Amino acid sequence: MALLTALKVLLSEELVYMNARNLSYSEIACVTLLTWDVLIMFSDETELIWKRVWTPAKFMYFIARYLPWLVQLALLAISVNGSTGLQFSFGQCAAWQVVQGVVLQVIVTTVDVILITRVYALYSRSPVLLGVLGSLFAAEIAFLCYVLAVVTPKLTYDDECYVTSSPTIFQYYWIVSLIFETILFVLTMYKFCEAVRQGWGKGPVMQQFVTDGTWAYALIFLVMLVNMMLYRYVRSTLTGICYTWLLVVLSLAGSRLVLNPRRASISLHAGSRSRLESSNIELTRLSSVAPVSPTRAAGVMVTIEHISDGGNWEKDSYRAETPEGGFAV
Fold first, then answer.
1. Whole-angstrom distance, CA of residue 158 vs CA of residue 153
2. In sequence order, which residues have a C-beta less than 8 Å from that of residue 29 and are 6 or more positions away?
3. Tell me, what's the pLDDT at 207?
């Protein structure tokens, strides 16, 4: 009997060690992937982000791109395959989880703002839609903060501050986030289907807009869903293994949703610069684009950095035209 008990203890300790090792390997993979992505995007980032003046869009890019990376590096420094030998008290673990929760909420909120801006632009800056989405967004943020405040004191940890279990209410954090992301995606796809029916949905502008929105939604949805399942059903150090992967996905999606429109705008305007002078207007500013050609049509030119009401926008310019207005990303 004593031998059996000792064997169970050994197996349990071995399992804990294996889980900690796998979790550390996952964190290393996340840091490696994110570091690689930062390096390969840095040239575009320098030209399209850092050489421009500071704006809300630039600040959101910084949060979405670098805050997840910094958190990943901090997590890696705390425990690498359990070799650091660091031990933490319950209070220290709780404080660290508060930091991670706040950081996660800031990153999620930033990416949501970027997505909301895209939908707002797609619907010709509809004030009604903005009011509805703004109200839903405020309700979402309030609920998510409430859940984090309730959940954090009830999390359990091991000696290295890995979460081993969470209360049931934590699943609603992910469910509410998934619902809001789905609303934004459905609004985007509805407008896309409408554009296809009206004949202007097959252009490169609309195609890129939908492509970026689709892959970003799919990745975020998938990783959030996996996180929800792990926190709900797993009772080991692997409970939070996908937390770092969510940071990676949010960084990839948030940064590219800002960079891709700017890159495409420069590429398309380069071929038509002799016919059209580019106009750049920041996210928080709305203004008019002066007519530059006798061939004009109503439209709205949009990038993640810029939103402009192009009441007299050239038909051949970088935009997608609709009967009541258009957009470009």
1. 15
2. none
3. 80
